[in-house]
Amino acid sequence: MAVRASLACFPSDPALHAACGMPWGVAITPFSATDERGFPPATGAEGHLLPRCQSCFAYFNLLCPLDRWSWNCAICGAENDLSADAAARYARDGGHDPPEMRSAFVDLLLPGEEGEAAAAAAPTPVYVAAIDLSSSEEFLELVKSALQAALEALLPGSLFGLLTFSSKIGLYDVQGPIPIVKNVFIPPDSDGALQVDLEDIMPLCSFLAPIDSCKDRITEALETIKPMSSWEVAANAHVGQDHVLHHIRGFGVALDVLINYLSSEYGNAFELARIFAFLSGPPNYGAGQLDINEDQNSGKARGADHILLQDQTSFYRNLATSAVQAGVCVDLFAITNEYTDLTSLKVLSVESGGSLFLYSSTDESTLPQDIYKMLSRPYAFGCVMRLRTSSQFKIADSVNTLRDM
């Protein structure tokens, strides 16, 4: 872990901090290979032996004053007794000091399952692509290229699902001899609930396919995906002229039911699922639709330099909360040059621990490279991060993508 302060010196008191007018904080990088000085951590396999403060439960570290049979907490100042074993462990003898006595940056392991038992208990990574069919051929070709790159970056043993959305939701089963898609229509006045559950349309075990044995059929399924045809748009003319002129995009309902679909196996089949949501324009159908009329767009454009845009709806913020509870993070890829109201949509990705990418055109998009690099980077889940400060400081706010998962 690396901890970098925004200023070279800490303010000595709150009054000085307020008077200087400078933002003060720290940037924390969990799982960093080196600390802020570039030094690697001192390592060990005896994390269970590390003493903890009886008052604030902070861990013993190099900054704690140490006596023969006691130590003082560097956070709260409380005095704590040392057991005979701990006193012997911390008897200073030069080069044989334990890791926590050699460095303030330590990486200690807790005893646990090893070997084949640990491998068997490891959670299976789950990835689902949600593709907007209310789009162009160029958009879909770009998304297909990006998903081919993603399949190359995914770890062996991963599970992959494929979903499409427009005025209907399509689920793909790629585990048979040929890919099969099953569709369910989204009611125009939908409140987020379909007439039938996705589990009844296709069991989750059929939807999530192992990439080791099904990569070729996933590729075949991608090649069958086509944009929403003109006759489908005409068939939905009853929902209003605006939806005939604009492609029908039931994004909110699709993500809502997909998250609920995955939540049934959270903690059993997987510990974290990632949804890659590909969007070619603003959601304009069913629950979560956004107001994109020209008057509002021009008004926002005129005041863009002076007005901080607010969420149009709390739908996506509530959906992000549901995603976190279901162990799902959403990466949103918007490839569009029209007003899409990312102010309302971004909370779904940011607050679920995902990322937001915006591309103004398909011609200049680096989507395949970006998704490959994103999946090639190390990331962690199912973790607990605790931040403790001395009594002179308190955590006022945080800006991050870490959530209680």
CATH class of the largest domain: Alpha Beta
Low-confidence segments, ≥5 residues, pLDDT <50? 115-119, 239-245
Helix coverage percent: 25-40%
CATH architecture of the largest domain: 3-Layer(aba) Sandwich
Number of strands: 14
- Tally of individual helices: 15
Largest sheet: 8 strands, mixed
| Outline type | elongated
CATH homologous superfamily identity of the largest domain: von Willebrand factor, type A domain
Content-based structural category:
alpha/beta
User: Radius of gyration in whole Å, from Cα?
Assistant: 26 Å
Beta content: 15-25%
The tally of domains stands at 3
Helix/strand order: EHEEEEHHEHEHEEEHHEHHHHEHHEHEH
* N- to C-terminal distance: 20 Å
Kindly identify the CATH topology of the largest domain.
Answer: Rossmann fold
| Residue-averaged pLDDT | 81
What attributes does this structure have?
single chain, 405 residues, alpha/beta, SH3 type barrels, Rossmann fold, 3 domains, eight-stranded mixed β-sheet, 14 strands, 31% helix
Short description:
The protein has 15 helices and 14 strands.
Write the layout of secondary structure elements.
Blueprint: E1 2-5, H1 14-20, E2 26-29, E3 42-44, E4 70-72, E5 79-81, H2 84-89, H3 99-102, E6 106-108, H4 115-121, E7 126-132, H5 137-153, E8 159-165, E9 168-173, E10 180-185, H6 198-201, H7 204-207, E11 209-210, H8 211-224, H9 230-235, H10 241-245, H11 251-263, E12 273-279, H12 294-302, H13 315-325, E13 328-335, H14 342-350, E14 356-359, H15 367-376
Parallel strand pairs: 3-6, 7-8, 7-12, 12-13, 13-14
Antiparallel strand pairs: 1-2, 4-5, 8-9, 8-11, 9-10
